[in-house]
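OP here, attaching both records as promised.
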Amino acid sequence: MIISCDRNTLRDERGAAAVELTLLVPALLLMLGLLVVGGRLWFARTTVNEAAQTAARAASLARSAGAAAGVGRDAGAQSLTTAGLHCRSTSVLINTAAFEVPVGTPATVTSTVLCTVSFSDVLLPGWPGSMELTGSGSAALDTYRARVSGFTNSEGLSSTNSGVR
């Protein structure tokens, strides 16, 4: 079997690689950009969830409901700052109803972190708009530890339970 090469066929193929490359490169760059954007969104959502879990854990270690609310808010905000997530507005809500539960009964402190992030921080620099990310966390209170439901004085004792340490 003899294969013949026609010169006209070879001339028609010139520049085909350049055309293919011209069509392929923008599509590959778009896919790469979408991967970067997806990674940044995943990072932001994960950071907000981690901040909520950190806030709940810190609040569960406090001795009173008042202290738990303050410590939890501070821990949640600090977690966002440490991770490098810049929020336009941040809200850390701590549910301290678990401190009202009698000792010996399992109870859980919950937290919710709301963070409004700018698209220019998460997607592309200069991109307009923002999105609100929400994370929630929970942590168990020690079942047999004394609980103080109200705000505490400087010694960490509630005025109604001053005899209980």
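Record two, same layout:
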Amino acid sequence: MIKKITKLCLAGTLALGTVGTAFAADEASTSPFAAENFSSTLTMTSSYMFRGISFSNDQPALQGSFDWGYGNVFAGVWGSSLSDADSSGYELETDWYAGYADSVAGIDWFVMPIYYSFSDNNTSAEANMWEIWLDASYAINDTFTLHSMYAFTPEMSYKNGDGHYIRGDVTANLPQGFSLTAGIGYQDVEGVTGVNTDWDYTHWDLTLAKSLAGFDLSLMYSDTSADKATDSLNANYLGSTDNSDDTVVFTVSRSF
């Protein structure tokens, strides 16, 4: 969830913070439902990664989004196929989000509530959850961009308590249209008395990306601090280490 929404909404932040300013200035002559205010993206990835965890059990996933932006506001829906290899009963994730974006003193930022929903649930555990995001990015120069975000989750999936997530990354624009992003994130979740204990983990990733012939291509290395079956992440959330192991992920997407 984190990686794809970050990409979508950072793009949305730039569009709403810069191009969006033009929208705001021309609102009198531009309808909120004009065709240029809508966009969609189709994505294929070798593994759907969410905060260092493979939500597709290291299997390929097909993803898509439909987005709308007008002035400083935006909204959208995003979906991904899920692998049921672990018999969890979940085969489709659908995320609904809306927010407000702006740019102040060179800092592009947005605030966004998002609802994660999971279909074909054959288990008694509740996976659906809400989050609120605070996100900011700053271009130091034409080469380097800093980005950070915080997400608060009231009642994390699977009967967990409140969750707190932070992430920071830096992107360097390279020759020939390539970019390299290095990031690190930390997830902390409160336990629920009589159900589970507190759990937390750290993850990190390195992504090489390039746009080519209208397609966005990326190759990412990802790993987490969860390397034993007895750690808090796997004991209280995953139940195994497979989905939090180090991995390399290839993704290709196209926006319309």
